[in-house]
Amino acid sequence: MDRVAATTLVVAAGAAVAAQGPFNGAMARHVGIWPAALVSFVVGGLILIVVCTFAGGFGGLGSITSAPWWAFLGGATGVAIVSAVIVGIGPLGAAGVTAATIGGQLAASVVIDRYGLFGMRASPLTAGKIIGIVLLAVGVWLIVRDR
Fold first, then answer.
1. What count of Cα atoms within 13 Å lies in the side-chain half-sphere of residue 70?
2. CA-only gyration radius of the chain, Å
3. Which ranges does the record mark as transmembrane (predicted)?
4. How many Å apart are CA 86 and CA 99, to the nearest integer?
């Protein structure tokens, strides 16, 4: 996939993330925080079963034991993210939750890239990256403070 297509896909995913908080927040108002997170993952899991069934099967799962231990943390971080968004959507709103999520993602991503964590190729910490994080932090503050 080229950069334009990848960027378009990820921007669309970002738009979906903005909608996911209100969806899960509405579910939480009906069933509670943890059951809402469970519903989110069950629905997602069912969709993935259908996708895997029609798009190449489950053959790669045979190599699951060769994955590093930390690769299994994706599910745990997913639970933490979805649950935090469900809790934060009321007080912060969709824009506040999305801004704070993006701020946290960028700050953590810069550290991950800087040290080459989790199999990523190491990338230097530059002045531009630091300025970007600071500007994003200011943006998060501006969005969250007016809620």
1. 4
2. 18
3. 34-55, 67-86, 92-112, 124-144
4. 15
**Angle at CA of residue 95, ends 93 and 96, nearest 5°:** 65
Dihedral of CA atoms 40, 9, 48, 18 in degrees, nearest 10, equals 0
Q: What single DSSP character describes residue 1?
A: -
The residue ranges of every structural domain in the chain are: 3-59+69-145
The residues, any chain, with a CB within 8 Å of residue 63's CB and separated by 6 or more, are none
Instruction: Give the integer Cα–Cα distance in Å for 24 and 37.
Output: 7
Q: What's the predicted TM-score (pTM) here? A: 0.79
In the chain, alpha helices (H) = 3-31, 33-54, 73-115, 127-145
